From TrEMBL:
Protein name, as recorded: Transporter
Domain of life: Eukaryota
GO cellular-component term (any): plasma membrane
SUPFAM superfamilies, A to Z: SNF-like (SSF161070)
Gene (UniProt): SLC6A7
Primary site of residence: membrane
Regions that span the bilayer: 46-64, 76-97, 118-145, 213-233, 242-268, 288-312, 324-348, 383-404, 425-450, 456-476
Top-level taxonomy: Eukaryota, Metazoa, Chordata, Craniata, Vertebrata
A Pfam family reported for this protein in Swiss-Prot or TrEMBL: SNF
């Protein structure tokens, strides 16, 4: 009998009922599931949903900036290494958990009930992220509607929201090209449109004084939640069909923007700035940490979206293949997005007669200030602006679908008899509650709250969740038992590469011991007058260059402290190297 059992493990028999979708042909996929939970209705639903979830706003406005500030082309070395060590193994682990159990982020902890708190933490994190992420989609909708004009409203000064500092940043031409502009103490029309009209941030005195609700942002946020609700109304049966458009159409727009960008004069200047290798950066731990963070957040590991999507698969879906398709496709998309962005920034740099690094920014500062300004310099500027923001809309919606589906699935799996028959109503209540909680983000001081949520909702806590999941599965449940489960599901056991990463490499990398052991920014003498040298202006409450640089870079402001902050970084790095 034991010999027969061992032979069965070596060559598993797969009944017709449990064949992979590719082997089943047009057989109904519902046969492999409990009828009341639901499942993907098409062969590509799961794959496209994962691609849409991973390829999001960060690929467009985070990766290109991180690449050029961390060594240009040399950044690809730590990027792909971190993809191999952290990205691919953790991605496969989360998909395997979801597909094997067919359970959401809470119920899946039947694998080890002691660690169910990690599932609750995952749910809390994704809930906070969903609230402010949909606000970003609301900003995109605002700009999308504003692009439906013959002249873009952020093209010129002279509007009621502009100040005397507003200057139309258009370089004048001489016989040799653009004459450099003196941009000191000036603000572009696109920046004032973003900060003074869209955000109306001058109406707030700070985070404790949010001011009045902006009715136009309030309506845009309502529309964003209505779109999300309608797309997840029937769970994965409806969102799985929407992604056929939202996950593929951004690539068409990205290709159009790429072709238009590389044909502009000065485009090569931006591309060269983006990809010129600076290998000395690889000696800095900061570059490796930035690469790990980009991989970690871009793939969406730890938010529960991957686990949720995989839970609706057939038991023998080939997620091993899907893992490599999604992760490598995500990396290639990020690199292509960099070409599309920096080709336009190179053209903008040439038109203004200023270096590329003076126009390059990250985050919302790129999406809502720099790129819209670049669009005003192109012929048919409203058309290109509409395409750009429509691309951002489709990129953002896919991720938002995953966040909401994660919350709904997690709770309904905990209370299936009560909530599963009324899943559409429950989804509507979740969307309504999150809309109400997000109204604070539509006030004059809403950006302060968005910064707060973005900085603290999914940073350290998310790392703890992922490390806990990895250690609980491999150390508590057991790596051998987990590999046997995957063998039962896929017909083969994970190789040495995956086991080594799950046991050692991925958790060790995520701990980021070197960064965690560095002193805090406000470490030093308690009194400002006693702070000299590298401790100047680092006390909380002072006009510290580093914190200002971090926030203003991320959210679109322009600050004179930025160059100072870069110098402070360089001095600290040089001092640390001399002490080693």
């Amino acid at each position: 009998m034991k010999k027969l059992q061992r032979a069965h493990l070596r060559k598993p028999v797969t009944p017709d009922l449990l064949m992979t979708p590719s082997d089943q042909g047009d057989v109904d996929l519902d046969m492999d599931f409990a009828a009341d939970r639901g499942n993907w209705t098409g062969k590509l639903d799961f794959l496209l949903s994962c691609i849409g979830y991973c390829v999001g706003l960060g690929n467009v406005w985070r990766f290109p900036y991180r690449a050029y500030t961390n060594g240009g082309g040399a950044f690809l070395v730590p990027y792909f290494l971190m993809l191999a060590i952290c990205g691919i193994p953790l991605f496969f682990l989360e998909l395997s958990l979801g597909q094997f159990s067919s359970l959401g982020p809470l119920a899946v902890w039947k694998i080890s009930p002691l660690f169910k708190g990690a599932g609750a933490a995952m749910l809390l994190i994704v809930g906070l992220v969903a609230i402010y992420y949909n606000m970003i989609i609301a900003y995109v909708l605002f700009y999308l509607f504003a692009s439906l004009t013959s002249d873009l409203p952020w093209e010129h000064c002279g509007n009621w929201w502009n100040t005397e500092l507003c200057l139309e940043h258009r370089g004048s031409k001489d016989g040799n090209g653009a004459l450099p502009l003196n941009l000191t103490y000036t603000v572009s029309p696109s920046e004032e449109y973003w900060s003074r009209y869209v955000l109306h941030i001058q109406g707030s005195q700070g985070i404790g004084s949010p001011g009045e609700i902006r009715w136009n942002l309030c309506l845009c946020l309502l529309l964003a939640w209505v779109i999300v609700f309608l797309c997840i109304l029937k769970g994965v049966k409806s969102s799985g069909k929407v992604v056929y458009f939202t996950a593929t159409f951004p690539y068409l727009i990205l290709l159009m923007l790429l072709v238009r960008g590389v044909t502009l004069p000065g485009a090569w200047k931006g591309i060269q700035f983006y990809l010129t290798p600076q290998f000395h950066h690889l000696l800095s731990s900061k570059v490796w940490i930035e690469a790990a963070l980009q991989i970690f957040y871009s793939l969406g590991v730890g938010f529960g979206g991957l686990l949720t999507f995989a839970s609706y698969n057939t038991f023998h879906q080939n997620i091993y293949r899907d893992t490599f398709i999604v992760t490598l496709g995500n990396a290639i998309t990020s690199i292509l997005a960099g070409f599309a962005i920096f080709s336009v920034l190179g053209y903008m740099s040439q038109e203004l007669g200023v270096p590329v690094d003076q126009v390059a920014k990250a985050g919302p500062g790129l999406a809502f200030v720099v790129y819209p300004q670049a669009m005003t310099m192109l012929p048919l500027s409203p058309f290109w602006s509409f395409l750009f923001f429509f691309m951002l809309l489709t990129l953002g919606l896919d991720s938002q679908f995953a966040f909401l589906e994660t919350i709904v699935t997690a709770v309904t799996d905990e209370f299936p008899y009560y909530l599963r028959p009324k899943k559409a109503v429950f989804s509507g209540l979740i969307c309504m509650a999150m809309y109400l909680m997000g109204l604070i983000l539509t006030t004059d001081g809403g950006m302060y709250w968005l910064v707060l949520l973005d900085d603290y909702s999914a940073s350290f806590g998310l790392m703890v969740v992922v490390i806990t999941t990895c250690l609980a599965v491999t150390r508590v449940y057991g790596i051998q038992r987990f590999c046997r489960d995957i063998h039962m599901m896929l017909g083969f056991k994970p190789g040495f590469y995956f086991r080594a990463c799950w046991l050692f490499l991925s958790p060790a990398t995520l701990l980021r011991l070197q960064q965690a052991s560095r002193p805090a920014m406000d470490w030093g003498p308690s009194l400002e007058e006693n702070r000299t040298g590298m401790y100047v202006a680092t006390l909380a409450g002072s006009q510290s260059p580093k914190p200002l640089m971090v926030h203003m870079r991320k959210y679109g402001g322009i600050t004179s402290f930025e160059n100072t902050a870069i110098e402070v970084d360089r001095e600290i790095a040089e001092e640390e190297e001399s002490m080693m």
